[in-house]
Write a structure and sequence with these properties.
alpha/beta; four-stranded antiparallel β-sheet; globular
Length: about 375
């Protein structure tokens, strides 16, 4: 792979140029104010393998378009050749992102998702702040962000700094709290890490639990045995299990008890040894339930507790066990805690914007409650 920076072109608006494989795509790239002089630079990249280059660019150049929007550059992709144009810093960052993505598809041979592209952008941005540019350039796929690996899924790398912190905490702490909005990968990464420990023989069992609390609905009595009654509440965990394990392995592990579905109400009195124990939707636990659950931790076990304090479905006036626990246990040795924000949402960019809008509205309502006589003002 060859990258050739060309001479800088001062005085040319950064929004000029072509995008896509030789075709102009309007509305992409940096926007310059009328009359503003923006210094630009052209960076050319030539990839060794046409097929792998097409995986980097994505179907209909969607990855190229995504990088253009995120980094405020324009790009022209043709065959295995790419020309990036934009401000010097942005063009250099885009070059590193494309090189990183090419290294990934070379190793995996599989197509990239927009989440993978976002992860490469985040990783490149963070590495640019932590490491000398020459060092990063020499090692375009230096594994700064941590990763987990399972037999089915292979290596799954963190897509942002919060996920990287999360994985590191999982490796180094016996008990980890993960708080944050939907779509940040709290449960998915927890299940992936638990499966990796199970496959490596570090633990013997995977125990999954979740409070049986409806989200503002009353479903009434559900038919079936205990597992069939609890299954609807644990469907997100099942989805993650099937992502990281073959379906036949999941089914066999459930039958043999290697993977156990344990309703929270049935955890009392147990000592959980040689296991990874995952409590999902922990914001819906009561104070008593949370204390009971935390004291189940046994020898050679790990416990992961995930939840979103902004989505508590408990009756009004009842305190969330998750909120109380993270305050009481703050600073206790051996306990890790990571808090995800709206900017850490990786499920879909629209989900991130929805979460941001709700958080902004919540902050605005809080300001109005504190000062009834003043009108709600937008956040600075």
């Amino acid at each position: 792979m060859l990258a050739i920076p060309t001479a800088r072109s001062p005085g040319v608006p950064a929004s000029d140029g072509l995008s896509g494989r030789g075709a102009p795509l309007r509305g992409r790239g940096p926007a310059a104010r009328i009359g503003e002089i923006v210094e630009t630079v052209d960076v050319s990249l030539t990839f060794d393998d046409n097929r792998l280059a097409s995986l980097v660019f994505g179907q209909y150049d969607q990855n190229v378009a995504h990088i253009e929007r995120r980094l405020a550059v324009t790009a022209t992709a043709l065959g295995n050749h790419l020309v990036v144009k934009g401000p010097p810093d942005s063009a250099e960052k885009a070059r590193k992102v494309f090189e990183r993505l090419y290294a990934r598809v070379t190793a995996s041979g599989t197509a990239l998702t927009l989440g993978d592209v976002d992860g490469a952008i985040q990783e490149t941005t963070l590495q640019g702040n932590l490491f000398p540019s020459a060092e990063v350039s020499a090692e375009p796929d230096r594994p700064h962000f941590d990763q987990i690996a399972t037999r089915k899924r292979g290596a799954v790398r963190a897509r942002n700094a919060a996920q990287d912190t999360y994985i590191k905490l999982l490796r180094n702490h016996e008990l980890v709290f993960a708080e944050g909005p939907a779509g940040t990968g709290k449960t998915w990464l927890a299940v992936g890490y638990a499966v990796s420990l199970l496959e490596q023989g570090h633990v013997e069992r995977l125990i999954l639990s979740r409070p049986a609390v409806e989200a503002g609905e009353r479903l009434g009595f559900l038919p079936g045995d205990m597992r069939e009654k609890v299954d609807p509440y644990l469907r997100p965990i099942y989805d993650a299990l099937y992502d990281f394990m073959e379906a036949r392995h999941v089914d066999r592990s459930l039958q043999t008890g290697v993977i156990e579905i344990a309703p929270l109400a049935f955890m009392r009195g147990r000592t959980l040894t040689n296991a990874v124990v995952l409590l999902d939707e922990a914001q819906n636990t009561t104070s008593m339930q949370m204390k009971m659950f935390l004291t189940r931790l046994g020898e050679n076990s790990r416990m992961i507790i995930t939840g979103d304090p902004s989505q508590v479905d408990l009756p009004p006036g009842q305190k969330s066990g998750l909120v109380e626990a993270v305050n009481i246990l703050d600073g206790v040795e051996g306990i890790g805690r990571v808090t995800f924000r709206d900017v850490d949402v990786v499920r879909h960019d629209l989900v991130r914007r929805i979460v941001t809008a709700y958080e902004t509205a919540a902050h605005g309502q809080g300001d109005a409650d504190r000062s009834p006589t003043s009108r709600r003002r937008p956040l600075a």
